[in-house]
Every structure is written in structure tokens, then in C-alpha cells.
Amino acid sequence: MSERVLIxxxxxxxxxxxxxxxxxxxxxxxxxxSKAEQKAGQGIEIEEPALSVxxxxxxxxxxxxxxxxxxxxxxVDQYSRSxxxxxxGGPSPTGELELMRGDLTEVLYKAADAHPNVTYLxxxxxxxxxxxxxxxxxxxxxxxxxxxxxxxxxxxxxxxxVKSRTRQLAMGSPEELNxxxxxxxxxxxxxxxxxxxxxxxxxxxxxxxxKVLWMRPVSKASDVTSVYFIHVNKDVPALRRxxxxxxxxxxxxxxxxxYSGLGxxxxxxxxxxxKAENFYSDELMQVKLKKxxxxxxxxxxxxxxxxxxxxGEGNQLAIIGAFVLAQQLSRNRTPAAFDVYEERLRSxxxxxxxxxxxxxxxxVLVPQTSWGVWLFRTLIYVGSWIVRFMAWTRTPxxxxxxxxxxxLQIEKVETKKAR
Length: 419
Fold this sequence. Notes:
By secondary structure, this protein is an alpha/beta fold. A hairpin with a 4-residue loop joins strand 9 (136-142) and strand 10 (147-153). The protein has a 7-stranded mixed β-sheet, sandwiched between helices. Strands 7-2-1-11-18-17 form a 6-stranded mixed β-sheet, sandwiched between helices. Strands 8-9-10 form a 3-stranded antiparallel β-sheet. It is globular. Helix 2 (50-57) crosses helix 11 (314-331) and helix 7 packs antiparallel against helix 8 (248-258). The termini are close together. The chain contains 14 helices and 18 strands. The longest helix is centred in the C-terminal third of the chain and has 24 residues, at 370-393. It has a domain at 4-45 and 98-179 and 286-357 and 402-412: FAD/NAD(P)-binding domain. The protein is 35% helix and 26% strand.
């Protein structure tokens, strides 16, 4: 009989792990607290070596067909005046393969769900988890019917994000593990109705007090625009209290207060934020654990090592980590694979968790004073002209940006159960 694996979380890491474990003839169940049709999340990019994983899955053409087609990033001031346009293909916040997270997870879900031995259970959460010597006993609750069933699995994979329920049940609370490392920033993202000026560039505006409003197009045909509030601040009591309580309306009210009185598109964004259904807000935390597994339970993605958006590596690590975990399990279908998975990835992940400029990048890139904002805008303006000059003088065979090197051993991935 094939080994049974429970994957908690149908995000990027969860569905990629499900895809490859399904190919390796595991019996896979994926549980996800959200509804199947619910889409949320920010814009994300896929670069090498993660790009090789989606190529190997055979979904790259599908992903290219749903990319946002955002043409670059325009840095603007509070009067909508551009002071630096960075187009796709150069040193721009906009990547070559820019996707909305919800669109990416839908493609990954469909690819994994195509395997007959992979089953998705939406609106389902893990209520309890008990490990024995040879199995994991799990109580699963359906959130819509409020019914609970008990099932047994050989292995459990926690791919359920920064506040992982799986991690807490198997290893202990964040306080016990001392695994949360605040980076001194709060973030909110949501969608608002699109207007003509929201296409084709993403637009980013800085305000004194370490505040940023970033507006990004979803697609030319879409009727919504993706919005990000970023506030670099170690302590915003109203936001912290609302986040701890999980009160979405109080979170919106706190953000409205923090950004009150600012110019540019802020009044429009605040008005529409109060109506947004896909609103998400939280304090940014890195997750740092001494070990990523406990007996028959293993963590992957943000549940194991959340790097925060300031590193730009969260999506990359989720894809690479899920692939490597499934690859090692296909080679050794026991918890022993978890140690090899961690041995291969640990140093790569820790390097990727490093926030640029010795951890001070958020403070440098999001200035506190009006003078600091002016200086930042001046540097962006000068940099945009340097980028244009480089584009004019670039030779046809010039290479693009550098990527962190990691040997995926992709040619060695197993897709069939060892007999």
C-alpha cells in the first residue's frame, strides 16, 4: 500500500509538494482552510532556480499566459509626478514572470489535483495531531459543516504559512519555540476597483514617516488593482492589537488612521479598502527554527523559514523547498528523508533570509523624514537615467540579473514508487 501523506495548506509550497508526491505514487490529501474559489495575495515573481521547477512540472506556458504583463515600476511623488521609471527587463521591482499569487496557486492546485492519488479538501482545518511510532493521527474539521473526522497518515507536511497550526501542534507555540523574529514593519494588501491610470505600470509612492503605497496592475483585462500599504515601524499598537485579535475591520481602521491626511491616491485607496473582501494585514515576521521536522511531521515554506518580502525570496524558497522535500521523500519514503531535505537546504535558506544592507534595507529604502524622501527620490531619478544608458549600450548577448545558485538535482527526481 502506498504511504499516506497529509499536506496542510494549498498554497505554493503545499501544491508543489502534492504534485511531486502524487507523481511518486504517494496517497496525498491536501487540506486548506479557504474555499476552493477564493483568491488572495500579492504579486510574486518566479526566477531561477525556482523557474526550473515549474518548467519541470510542464506548467510554464500556462503561467506565462496568466502573468500580469506589468511593464515596469514608476516611482511617483504625492502629486503623481514620475521621478523614475524602471521597465521590465532591467533592475526593476517588476520581474519577467510576474504573477498574482492567487492565479499561481490555482494553476498549481489544478496540476496536482490531476493526479488520481491527490485529494484536496477545502474549508478544512487540522484540529488535533497525535504522533505514534509509525503513524500520525489527525482530527480534520470541515469549517462549513462543523463536522470532524479522524484519519491516519504516515507523514504530515506543514505548508500552512507563518502562523502554522501544524507547527504549533507538532512542535509547540511560537513563544515556546522562540521562532518569530520581527523585522520592524507592518504590511497590508488588498484589491480595489481599477482606474485608467493603474495600467500598465505599477506605481510606488513614498511618504515621510516610513510609509509606502504601492499600486500594481493585475492584468489589462482585470477590473481590479492590487494595493500594498507598507509601514516600516517597530510598534504600531493599534495595528498590533487588531492583528492579534484577528479583527479585519479594526485592522482597516488602524491603517486608515496611519495613512490619514496623505496625498496622491491615498484617499481613494482608503475608501475602497474599507469595502475590500480580500484584505490581509499583519506584522512582518521571519520564522527561524532550530529544526524543520519533528518525528513524522515536517515543515516547508513560510511555516519553516518565512524570510519576509524584504528579502524577495519567499516565493522562490517555497517552490525550491517543496520540490526538494518531495524529491527526498521519493528517494526515501520515511522520516529519514526530512534530515536530508534540511541538510541540503538549511544554508541556502539562511542565506536567503538575510535582509540586504545588514538588515537596514527597510529603513534605507523607506525614509523617515521629508529630507530622506527627497534624497531617495533623487537617487531613484539618477538611477533611472543610468539604467537607460545601460540599455542603450547593452550588447545582444548581455546576461540578466544573477540568481542564487542551488543544485536542484532535477534530473534525478524520482516519479515512481521504488519496488
